Amino acid sequence: MVLRYTVFLLLFAMSGMLRAEHLPGGTITTRCVGGNFHEITLKLFRECSGSPMIPQDLSFSNDCGVNFQQTAMQPVSVEEVSPLCPEELPNSRCNGGTLLGFELYTYRTTIFLSPCSLWRISWRICCRNQSLNVSGTPGLYLETTLYNLDSRCNDAPEFVDDTVPMVCVGQPVSYDGSATESDGNTLRYRLIDARFGAPTPTPVQYNPPFSGAVPFTGMAIDSLTGRIAFLPTVIGNIVAVIEVREFDSMGNWQSTVMKDFLFIVNACANDVPSVDGGPFMEATGVATITGDHTLRVCDEGPFCAQMTFVESDPEQTLSIASNIAEVLPGTTLETTGTDPVTVQLCGNSEGVSNGSYQFSVSASDGACPVQGVQHYLYTIVIGAFPDAGLDTTILYCASDADLTLIDQLGGTPSDGGTWTGPDGEAFGSTFDPSMDVPGAYTYMLSGEAGCTGTATLTMDLLPPSDPLCMSVDVNDLEDRSYRITMDLSVRGRTNIIAERSGTVDLIVLGSDGRMVRTERLMMAAHTALPIDMPELASGVYVFQLVDQVGSLRASERIVVP
Predict the structure, then answer these.
(1) What does the pLDDT read at residue 433?
(2) pLDDT tens track for 127-138
(3) Counting Cβ atoms within 10 Å, is residue 561 exposed (0-12), middle (13-18) or buried (19+)?
């Protein structure tokens, strides 16, 4: 089946001057190379029936009073980016044919930017393509701004998609307006007014009811991912401008970049891939699916997940492309089938820094002459389980003193979590043996990337007749200067910690009340003294500490597995 587009473009040129009717958009990005030198990249799209490109100028200014221009820049590369199937590329206007074609011109220069809180780099030209949403044909203005105080070296975001999107009237659009960023900073997206240089940058006038924030009815951008979604209902050109703001980990602004571009809406003879395709399915390894397009990885190790893409036209076959290899090196996509296409994503989080990694997948239906393409955005959130400690069982008597729950967990749990009781309701941090019910008490600790660690403390109430409950008089233990805890990493090891230095006698009793060990200990303040008894059989033991005048200072039940 042939996919045909009806293209509405204004095709004329002015003698001796490049105008923007044949420049569907562009963007400016920066990359710090050190010593306050920055590599500046200007990207411009050209419709190939227009005037030849001429050398380009960039304007530089800052809030510290510096102004200058970089003139007569020559392109460092020219790449055809026509949205045609491979068989029809030779027939584009870029190659002397009749089909609509586009080229991407890239200009690059390295400039010294003195320290200042705000630098502005801009480019402008006359005049825009005619469009559905902008009144007349005002000029085209591009700009990027960056923070360069204290010689801060930062790379600005760079947009992922380097094409002119051609979309189908009456069919939902999912477009990748996202950008990548190499410094681990946070990006926020929004749609803004298109501008022209007059020569001061001035917002264009929109045809009602359109605006920069809503360039076409229903068009919206996800502020976190950059995904643009809308339903085009009229054939023609739609001007849209994406702004990306970059913030460091402290919330400080670093840079702002923009992309001014066209959606070219045409009549299509077939259906493009479904906008709802590609949800994550069947995650394995250390990954968990937390949304249709979101994976959470909370441990180091391999992981995989599947996505499926569907084309409603049985005569079309789908092909898949992605930037996942650039976002998470070593992560792969393997495809099976052509319609539907099953994609297996696999990676390994070992050694990968915690954070959110966004990538895009495009599904193309291979139609000719112009391919139908849909974009899908995904996020892999990598974090680590916080240390909530180890599951532990405590045998207690109703006459025991109050217990701080976190101190009873095994391992080295971190503070800051919350407890729930056996009934699933919130519970405080202290257990009262005489009042609180036995059962499972769960400690939950939230960490980075939404990863949550849990540990369970099982409280088992002993009957009053149990020898363990008869061996301790709470009134004898008002001085809590000793702590006795089991070391789960070494079988038979118990650690004793004293608040102050001194001598104390250790008595170990079996569950039948029989003494199995006695020893005089020399304690150093706040230093754990390990007591190793690997010969102990599995069971419950009572560890008691008695001072030199015979007073019981501590008593603890220890369960040897």
Answers:
(1) 92
(2) 888 999 999 999
(3) exposed
pTM: 0.70
The pLDDT tens digits of the residues spanning 116-127 come to 999 999 999 988
Q: How confident is the model at residue 233 (pLDDT cuts 50, 70, 90)?
A: very high
Q: What is the mean pLDDT of the chain?
A: 88
Which residue in this structure is represented by tokens 């019981």?
552
Rounded-to-integer distance, Cα 267 and Cα 245, Å:
35
Contact 519, 512 (CB under 8 A): no
Q: Any long-range contacts for 20-23 (C-beta under 8 Å, 24+ apart)?
A: 20/125, 20/126, 20/127, 20/128, 20/129, 20/139, 20/140, 21/47, 21/50, 21/127, 21/128, 21/129, 21/130, 21/137, 22/46, 22/47, 22/49, 22/50, 22/51, 22/129, 23/47, 23/50, 23/125, 23/140
Residues 6+ apart with CB under 8 A from 71: 55, 57
Map out the domains of the chain with their CATH numbers.
2-9+18-266 (no CATH), 281-382 (2.60.40), 385-461 (2.60.40), 467-561 (2.60.40.3080)
For 337, residues 6+ apart whose C-beta sits below 8 A from its C-beta are none
Per the CB < 8 A criterion, the answer to whether 464 and 498 are in contact is no
- Say if residues 327 and 333 touch (Cβ distance below 8 Å): no
According to DSSP, the β-strands at 294-297 and 373-382 are parallel
Q: How far apart are CA 528 and CA 543, in angstroms?
A: 15
pLDDT in tens, 311-329: 777 777 888 999 999 999 9
Q: How do strand 179-180 and strand 201-203 relate by DSSP bridges?
A: unpaired
Integer Cα distance of 234 and 207 in angstroms: 14
From the list 134, 132, 137, the residue with the least C-alpha distance to 233 is 132
Q: Across residues 436-447, what is the average pLDDT?
A: 93
Which pLDDT belongs to residue 84?
A: 87
> Residue 550: CB partners within 8 Å, gap ≥ 6?
none
